[in-house]
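Progress against Task 2.4 (sequence-to-structure conversion) is shown through the following example record, which the project officer requested during the mid-term review.
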Amino acid sequence: RGGPAPARARSRARGRRLRERLQGDQRRLGPRRHRLLRGRAAPDPGGLAEGRGLRATRRPGGRALLGRVPDRRGGGAARGCAGARCRRGRAGPGGHARGRRRGGRVGRRGGRGRAAVAGLRQLRRLRRLRGPGRSLSRARGGAAVSARRRPARTAPSIEYSLLLTATLCLVALGFVMVFSASSATSLLGEGGDSAEYLKRTAIFAAIGLLGMRVASVRGVRLARGLTPALVGISLVMLVAVLVPGVGRGANGAQSWIGAGWLQFQPSEVAKIALILYGAHLLATQPKRARTLEGLAPFLALAGASLLLITIQPDLGTAMVATVGVGCLLFAAGMQPRTMLPVAALIGLAAVAMLATHPYQLDRVTGFLDPGADPEGAGFQSRQAAIALGSGGVMGVGLGESVQKAFYLPEAHTDMIAAVLGEEAGLAGTAVLIGLFAMFGYAGFRAAHRARDRYGKLLATGLTSMILGQAAINLFAVLGLAPLTGVPLPFVSYGGTSLIMTLTAAGLIMNVARRPAGASASARPAGAG
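Structure tokens generated for the chain above:
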């Protein structure tokens, strides 16, 4: 390395330019280094340097270091000055360098082992120093350097992981069981394709998983903005499905819009729209949950939607929506004494519907006494019981069910749990119930840990609705409740049901990704 950089000179000092410093000009070389070190002197009165200071350069043409290269190439002319002029510029009066007071001894010549330095003491770049490190990253679209650090990614919460695991496992189980339950009837049907329903389920699942992904990232924010439009669209579709020539019927209920297998069920959208509207209203105005007058707007909307669903008639979907709305009101703080009149009104509406719709009344009769009409109202319940009994503990094996082949009606939709019980036995049924229990635990825990009131109510209502639908279906298969035609969430074949249920699960996941206490800086990228 070369000698140290000269200190700053005063403005009146005139120095000489340092043209070049070569290898071997290091200061204090060899074994004499420890003997030539100097102690510190008193502080310089001028405040520009301390100690002895730097050594003066040799005279032009002086003797070079023994055994080493010369200090400079050429004489004073090579450095841009004449001899006398250079000698006058090296030191001021009294032998001291210009620009310094007498506190530092800097007027001595350079000697053996001493570096030749410039008289003008200024900061300048030295050679052989290490280059700069890697530059900072630039911001997009310009030359400005961005020093802002990206927020650290955090691991997903346990609730989010449980919800995602349970949902994907249920969907995968649904793929297997839909193919197993429908392959025989599809192969012997008109199309002759044993995987017909499996292909349709794959299309619906792809759309539903895409909706779940979008909802899990920023679904809560989008849902709050789209709630009014979603409520209005669902009401219009519920009315349109009752118009002759527009709505399509199946199994005694006119609940679909569309043609062929591309049919849409508006009631599946309406029940989620009710949860979104109720969560938004009771989160922004919590006092409304205390009185019936405050709940009047929400109860009026819920009553109109449930009435239109019941007229179709679709008692099962109406029951599922009622469970979700009731749990939402309870979580919002509605008192039991306030809920009693509402529950009584719902009970009266259910009795009136049974009295005016013989099809629904036959289902209740078949539940109470399946043996009274074993070939009619009680046929489906009896076949489901036979399937579950044939499965035993471990089942007869996947694809080996006998009841699914023209014995068990709607084996791939309402009765898919019976096929699972026959092929996988009690163990498979326990796994199915365990997955729904995992989903419910994670959903309610996410609601409990939500960062705001809206998230609490939304997660509570949607989780209750999905679990209520699963319970109604399983109770009907086990003979503990009347048949309602409600599909098993995530598992049964059904386009609109699968898409909307996966989207609802994505909304719950979005609440679980942002629990209370999580700072905004610790959110994952792209979170909503």
